[in-house]
Each structure stands twice: as structure tokens, then as C-alpha cells.
Predict the 3D structure of the following.
Amino acid sequence: MSEIDFSKIPAHVAIIMDGNGRWAKKKSLPRIFGHRQGVKTVKNIVKAADSLGIKVLTLYAFSTENWKRPAVEVKALFSLLVQFLKKEFAELNEKGVRLRILGDISKLPENARKELDKACKETAENSGLQLNIALNYGARQEIIRAFRSIAEKGITNPDEDDISNALYTAGQPDPDLLIRTSGELRVSNFMLWQIAYCEIYVTDRLWPDFSRKDLEEAIIDFQKRERRFGGI
Ligand code: IPE
Ligand code: IPE
Ligand code: MG
């Protein structure tokens, strides 16, 4: 903790929360147990991010490709999401957390959609941590959606701002630090536009085991990097 430079906290941290299945497998448990433990990590990490002074935290929870999983697993994931929102909403709201969903939630089960809409609406005026949850999110789909909305507005010669403003993350700074747990060296269709100059940190730690200390280690590593943005 003492190694962290609090004047250089990344404004936006994005996390590919991976490894729930492997965590469960290691313990000879069904995959859903890993997801359940993963939700506990979400709770801890949101708290930690807030207290470290991170302004925007984006969590990749369900990709457009995750529909390929068995229907029972998909169903369990959304039911965990609803449970999380019901259980944690009051505390998050009290802390001033503002929730935004990145992705097309129209395809989600109705109770999940309802809880999400409610949580987003009721926290819209909060001014604390901006929490983005990427749900049924795919970066390519996000970009297609942006291009369509730009065309609908009649913008024929879009610039970078036009595109950024048409993404789910409109108005937010791009991620400074992208963390992926469980060691996979890939992006899996996540924030392709926004991570253009993001620093990437991959840890072997499985998401259910990821702790505040791991987040701090990622930040310490980030603070040692020299970001050049193409300069010298
Ligand atoms: C991440 O854990 C959670 C989601 C993608 C929903 P996984 O379920 O992908 O876990 P592994 O990769 O199988 O270990
Ligand atoms: C990425 O994890 C998506 C989320 C964390 C929601 P996956 O487990 O779906 O990624 P792949 O399949 O290993 O690329
Ligand atoms: Mg995975």
C-alpha cells in the first residue's frame, strides 16, 4: 500500500474478470460455485477501487460470445447478477456509486433488465465511483452501433470524438489500465476502441481469488510504466 503513489492513480481501470470456471474446477466444484465466489470478488474490488480513488471501474461480466455457454450456466449468471443488485444496491447507492451498463441488455431475462434499469436510474445523479458493468457486451457490436447512430444523425465525416461519443462509454475517459485475471493473453472483444493506448496487466490469479492487494499490485506496476503515446 505504501508503494502506491496516490497522485498517479489510474482514472479508469477496466477488468476482464476471468477464471471462475477454473477456480471451481480446481476445487472439484461445479462452475457456478466459481461464479458465486466471483461475485464476492466484485463486491470487494468495487469497494477497493472506490477507496483507492479510481474514478471509473469497468467490469466485463458477460460477453456477446458468452451465449455459447450451456443455457443453465447463462441462466445462473443472470440470476447471480439479480441477487447481487438486490443485495448490494443500497450500500452502493449510499457510497455514491453511479452505475452504467455497457452492452445490449434487451436480450437479458426480464427481471435482470428491470433491476438494472432501476439501479442505473436511481444512481444516475450520484457523484462517486462510476461503475460500468459490461453485459452482453462486444466491442465490435458497440462500434457497429456507434456507426449506425452516427449515420442516423447525418454525420458523414465522423472524427474521433464523434465515434467516442457514440460508444457506451460516451463522456468517460478511456481506460488507463486493463487488468485480465487468469493469465489469458487476449482481449476477447473488449473495448477495442477505448484501449488504444491502455496499459495492459495480466495476472495468473483467478478472479475469485483476486483481492484488493492484487489490485494494488497492478496499480503499482502501472505506475512504473512510461506511457509515451507515440512520443519519445
Ligand atoms: C469469467 O470466468 C466469467 C465469465 C466469462 C462470465 P469464466 O467462466 O470464463 O472462467 P474460466 O475461463 O472458464 O475459468
Ligand atoms: C471474457 O472471458 C469475457 C468476460 C470476462 C465476461 P471469456 O472466458 O469469455 O473469454 P475467452 O472465451 O477465454 O476468450
Ligand atoms: Mg473464461
User: Anything to note?
Assistant: Strands lie at 12-16, 56-63, 98-102, 130-137, 177-180, 199-202. The two ends are 31 Å apart (CA to CA). Residues 90 and 119 are 10 Å apart (CA to CA).
